[in-house]
Fold these 2 entries.
Entry 1:
Amino acid sequence: MTLNRRFFMGTAVAAAGALAAPMVRAQGKPRVVVVGGGAGGATAARYIAKDSDGAIDVTLIEPSRSYYTCFFSNLYIGGFREIDSLAHSYGTLASDFDVNVVHDWAVGVDRDAKTVTLASGASLPYDRLILSPGIDFVDDAVPGWSVASQNAMPHAYKGGSQTELLKAQIMAMPQGGTFAMVAPPNPYRCPPGPYERVSMVAHALKESNPTAKILILDPKPGFSKQALFEDGWSRHYSGMVERIGPDFGGENVSVNPDEMTVDIDGMVQKVDVCNVIPAQKAGHIAEVAGLTEDNWAPVNAADLSSTMDENIHILGDSAAQGDMPKSGFSANSQAKVCANAIRGALTGSTVFPARFSNTCWSLIDANDGVKVGATYEATDEKIASVEGFISEVGESDEVREATYEESIGWYQAITEDMFGVS
Amino acid sequence: MSNKGLLSGAFLCMVGAASAAPADVQTGQQLYSQCAICHQIGDGAINTIGPELRNIIGREAGVHPDYRFSDSLVEAGADGLVWDEATLDRFLENPRDLIPGTKMNYRGMRDDDDRAALIAYLASFGGESRDVPAAAETFEVAPEILAIAGDAAYGEYLSGECTSCHNSSDADDGIPSISGHSPEYFVTVMQAYKQGAREHPVMSMLARRLSNEEIAGLAAYFETVD
């Protein structure tokens, strides 16, 4: 981190005397480089390429050849989805939209030269850069846990192998064993996610291991859709789920991955599976680029441009944008506003006013879905919420089933919106 | 595309109180309120989200003027499926069981008596009968709103808010397809949400903040999308 920071500072000083340097690739098409191929980055790459019709050169940098969505990964844990159904390739973005897909890590950003350095050593010039790197974890957020211990105590908060590992551990739990979740403090990716996960773990255990216990250690006094989840847990999983909030030590938790114990405010307990979801921060490249402040990257609401660099836009979980929750839906919504603004800036196309929306569906048990959503607008200060809704306790079975079915339609639609129709 | 005769922007939003009719038909009429969201029936009925259902008894599956059915339903019709009491009963119990690829976004009616009542109601519109269900409620859009010429380019931008949930294919997996409707139909449905004649948490919220011009823009854009 120190090295990268110095790298950035050094180039900033060096470039100060060279402001009149010619624009990179001034002769060619404008270039947009997108770092991160998730809900923000893939959508932005596709929309810029599609709508500019070849007038903008779009490069997408994403290390994974197969992208596993984090959204719906809880449904895999619950047994409602196959893991393969969460995997998506970038082939259609390359073949149908002419996006240059580079499977590599972005490791540095030279903001003055306007280049991105890849782990392979290559350097890519950009006119506009989009960073959509998702989340990383705050060091030492949960004492005793680090990324080195993520096999013993998985976070499963980035989609793919971690999700599969956590599910395997749950299915191998001894009869009557304990599943513990260390829940994250705000703000974090997917506010209802930990609690939907608890629901899906309970669903999986109810069949195979009905005497198992689920323990949530939570530093937050309350959480997203709390009334809906607690109602659902009492209806479907009575006696299985216990939550320890900050009043009872939930904010003073450490773990010992070697011993498989959790220490709750001085009380040490042995557990069989421990899902540690640490405090989060912007994906590392946003920090490397020198664009973060208090762990997140502040942006202007109208076009998601960094408040520190007008040529760099930050989408999704990494952005400190205001009122939108960190979700795949939000990132997808922000990406379309950002794509429209970048296209306007680079080609002179019409820039329409920003508008955003989000809906988050959660599954509590089979055919028992709930949702929360809102619309948002850009103000001078932030992305501000306009109007919202939330499912109600006591809705009919038909409404809950229809809500779940909507979520399946949404998954199909948003992944097509990100990756194109393969 | 095909809904030109939209009767000055009115569509059957909901079926109201029953007229004097045999008991099971009356029950069927009440049950039909679930179907009425997508299927018109009775005098002047036209295709909307689903095909209109007058004279459904005896109709070959997947065949109706100006309605675009799923390939699966067209194939089933070509293979000889004809709608009668027995086939409708099987279909309505679990549509995707009989026609796995159907666009119809309905999970099925499990109760045998309910299905019989509903089919009796549908059959009451068979033959030459063109009875209007009594007290049918309709939602009408003011002509000046329907007359707004939409900006398709703006509509394309706004459509980003739709395509997060509505996919581009014909498969209605929990959320219906919204492409290829006539602008009149599109505007009418969106105005019904905006003005509260139809309710859905997400759609009502999104429609309320769309201006009349923005809805017209979306309608102009989506007409061009297959």
Entry 2:
Amino acid sequence: MGAEDNELVARLRRREPAAFDDVYARYHPRIFRFLLRLAGRRSVAEDLFQDTWLAAAKHAGDLTEETDLGAWLFTIARNRFRSHRRWAFLDFAQRERLAQEPPDHAPSPDHLAEARAEAAAVTEAFARLTPAHREVLLLAVVEGMETAQVGAVLGLKPDAVRQRISRARAELAAHLETENAVNRALAPGGLR
Amino acid sequence: MSSLDNDPLANTLARLPDDPLPPRAAAAVLRRARGVLVDEGRPTAKLQRFWSGVLLPAVLLGCALFYSVGALQTIERVYVAAR
């Protein structure tokens, strides 16, 4: 954690609105990106994003001097996502609706057929990962967090984080391979 | 930085779409969160939390218990003691 973050934590503990603005300016794009990629749906990500920052504002005074600001914020975001998933699981009507809807970023079959874009394949493969694997890859690879920080967010020991990253990589590689095979088959001249 | 720098997987995941929140929506969230920050900083906020988190549930639980005991005693008087 940087000295700048330490200072922000100290100011947040005093509930300085200006400190909160600084934290927001620094972290809100990352938190939104994390939630969007984790949830796969923009409307859900927007709701969770707001919940995350309201919770951060509410509990800012409870921070300790040792709090890792980034890990704290990502932990709140992740907990909001987990809570959302639990409630969504109990909401049968929503489950049915979501099961029929593709994720916002899922490319259409036409798009797949004509573009064969790697980005589309990555998005599709990533959306097929389990939430536990999505979150560990987002934190460790996309956000570039240290293993200890990822462990703090996920409540895991460093060894368990490394193991989960390794499994997530293998799962993503398998899905990517499948996506690429589908794209090759759908490409002009494929499956002949 | 992460030990995963220069990792092909990082390059792969960098291709995931990045669709940022519009500035107006981001500003609206900040405004609401700031409101919460200021409200929670008021001296009465702790008292309110204590009331809604501890005192009120305790009062409601006490009332429910009192009602249940009274109801059981009434049932006992009507059906058991009358025999």
